[in-house]
Amino acid sequence: MAMARGMTSSAAVLPRLRVLIADDDPMIGILATETLIPAGFEATVVGEGHAVLAAFDQVLPDIVLLDVEMPEADGFALCEQIRKRPRGGQVPIVMVTGRNDTASIERAYQAGATDFINKPILWAVLPHRIAYLIRAHRNAHALRQSEQKNRALLQALPDWTFVSDARGIVLEHLSGDAHGRSNDAAVQTLENTLPADTARKARECMQTAAGTASAQSFEFDVGSGDAQQSFETRLQPQPDGTFLFIVRNITERRRTDARIQYLAYYDTLTALPNRQLFVRELRRAIRAAKRTGSRVAILFVDLDRFKRINDTLGHAVGDALLQSVARRLDTCVRPQDFVARGTPDRESANVRIARLGGDEFVILVADLDDPQQAAMVATRVRHALAEPFTSDGHQFVVTPSIGISVFPDHGTEIEDLLVKADMAMYEAKDQGRNRHNFYRETTSGRSLERLDLESDLRSAIATSEFTLHYQPKVDAQTGAIDGVEGLLRWYHRTRGWISPSIFIPLAEETGMIGPLGDQVIRAACMQLRSWASRGLGHLCVSVNVSTRQFAREDFVESVLRTVREYEIMPQRLELEITESLLMRNIEEVITELTRLRRAGLKISIDDFGTGYSSLGYLRQFPVDTLKIDRSFVKDLHVSSDDAAICAAIIAMARELNLTTVAEGVEVIEQLEFLRDHGCSQIQGFLFSKPLPAAQLEELLRDGANLTIKPCSVEAIT
Ligand code: C2E
Ligand code: MG
Ligand code: MG
What we know:
The chain is built from 27 helices and 29 strands. By secondary structure, it is of the alpha/beta class. The structure holds ligand C2E and magnesium ion (2 copies).
C-alpha cells in the first residue's frame, strides 16, 4: 500500500480528503498521485484485491475508487463487502472500468456503487469530480439511487447511432445526430451523413465486416485546430444484412490519452523526456546503429554540488535552476555541426536529452562515426553551462561532470551502457569535476573504490577513528596564540591520511556529517576542558560546521547540551559556519545563531568572500568574526586586486564591529600587509600547520619564544 500526502497551498482551500484507490495498474497509482496530491487530497493506492478491505479499515477514506477488474478479485464483490463494513455505508464508492456496457453499470449499482467512471480516466477533472461526489454524498444522503443510475446510463450512451443497408443508405436514426442532420432529407446515404473521406472508409469497413462477419471500427476528425472534434465509429453487421453504426465523440478521450502519454514519458518539471522515453529512443538508436555499423554515445550529465544549492537556497531555486539547465542543454545540443553524417533534420533527430531525476540528465548522440564526436558534445554542454545562472536575486555558476559510454565499444546492452556512463561520471567528479570522462575498464574499479570509502567512512565514524588537529590563530599585532582551529584528520588503515576535502563532501552527501560533526564538537569540548584544567584556559577553539549539520533540527540544542556536559566556558567555543548557511531560511538561521550567541558561543563565517553574500547582507546576522578566504590571501602580495579585496573586507568588517582572521598566510609579505591593514588574527603555515594536541601544547610551552618563523608548506593528503 502506497500513501502520498498533498501539502501544497491548495490543501488549504480544499479540506484534505482521503481517497482510497484500488487498482492493479501501477500507472493509475502514479497518475492518481500526480493529479490528486496537488489538489490537496491524500491518496492511498492498493494494487491487490485482497488488501483492499484492510486498507479501507486502516485509511477510513472519504471516497473509494474501485477497479472493476483486479487480479484475484471481483470489483463488484469488493464493493458489496465494503458496504458491509462498519463505515462502509457512508462512503461514496466509484467503480472504475474499462467496460462500457450497461450491464456492468447495472451490476455496479446492485453492488452498492455510488457512481461509475470509465477508463481512461479524465485526470484533469477527477479531483473536481471526487470532491463533488464526496460533497454530494455528505449533503444529500437521500439522493435517490435511481437518479444516479439514470445519469450514468445516459453517460454511457453513444452520441449517435443509425442503421444503414448494404448499399450505404441510412435506414433509420436510432439516437442522437452529431452533425445536426435531420431525418427528413430525401435519401440519406453515408456520403451525406458522414464527411466524404470517412464515408469511403465506412464503405471499406462495411465490406470487411460483411466478409468476416465481425465488428469493425475507424476514427475520423471534423474541423481543425482547437475546434477539432474526433469521433470513433463502430459498425456491427446485423443478421438481416444491415449495419448498425455507433458513433462516439472521443475528443476528450484523445486529449486525455495525450496527457497520459505526456505524464508517462515526460518529466513535468523540465518538459524533457524521462527515463522511459529515453530508453525507448536508445533502443531504437542501437538497433539502427547495428544496421548501419555506426556508434551511439550516452552522456551522463550530473550537476556539481547541486545539492548544496538545493539545501541552501531552497527547492524553488533548485527547481528553477534545473529548468534553466534543461533549456540550455536543449539549445546547445541542437546545433548541427557536431554530428558528422546526415542532413540537418536527421542530425537533430540524432540527439535526445532526458532528465533521469534530481540533477541527472542524459544525452543520446546517435549515428556517430567517431567517439570523439561525443566528446565535442560534452564540451559544448560545459560551455553552455559556464555562463552564470540568475535566480531569485542570486547568481551562481553550475558546472557539470559528464560520463560517456559508447555503443558498441563499451557494451551492447542498454542497462550496461547506462551504468558505465554513470561510473565514468563519478570518475569525472573524483578527478575534480567540471569535466568529461569516457568509460574505461579501470572506471569500474574506481567506482567501487568510492563505495569502499563510503563504507569505511561509516565504520570509521562508528568506531571514532578520527582525531582533531589544531592550527593556531595568532594575534596579528602581538604574535601570541590566542585561538586554534580544530581540523578533522582521518588516518585510514590502508590508504594513510585522507584529506577532509575528500571525506567531508562524502559525509555531507551521505548524511554522515551529522554524527561526524557531533563527534567533532564533543572532541573540541573535551579538549577545552582538559586545557582549562592545565592552565591553558585562555585558548579559544573553533570548529567547522557544515550547513547540512547546522540544518539538523536539534543542532543548537545538542551543542548547548555538550557545552554544559563538559562544563566549559561557552566563550571559548567558536562555530565556523559558511556563507551558504546564511542563504537558507534567513529568519530561522538568525534565531538559531542568536540562541547560540546568547549562550555565549562565538560565531565566525569561514571562507568569506567565496559565497554570494555581501557585507551589507551580513549586517542582519549575529556573528563575531569573518575569516577571509585563503584564495584572496594567497596572491595578495602579488595581485593588487586581491590586496584590494582583503583591505576592503577588513575595513568593512571593522565597521560592522566584526573581527577578521586571514586564512592561509604563508609568507611574511602577506602577514605585513594584513597586519598593516588591521586584520585581527592570522592563521597559516607561516606559523604552523595543524598539529596534534600534544605538539600544539609543546608549541604553546615555547610560546614566549614564538617568533615569526616560516615553516615548510606541506598539506596532508
Ligand atoms: P577550512 O575550514 O577553511 O580550513 C582551513 C584549511 O586550510 C585546512 O585544510 C588547513 O589545513 C588549510 N590551511 C591552513 N593554513 C594553510 C596555509 O597556509 N596554506 C595552505 N595551502 N593551506 C592552509 P584541511 O585541514 O585540509 O581542511 C579542509 C577543509 O575541510 C576545511 O577548510 C573545512 O572546510 C573542512 N573541514 C575540516 N575539518 C572539518 C570538520 O571538523 N567539520 C567540517 N564540517 N568540515 C571540516
Ligand atoms: Mg574552517
Ligand atoms: Mg576556511
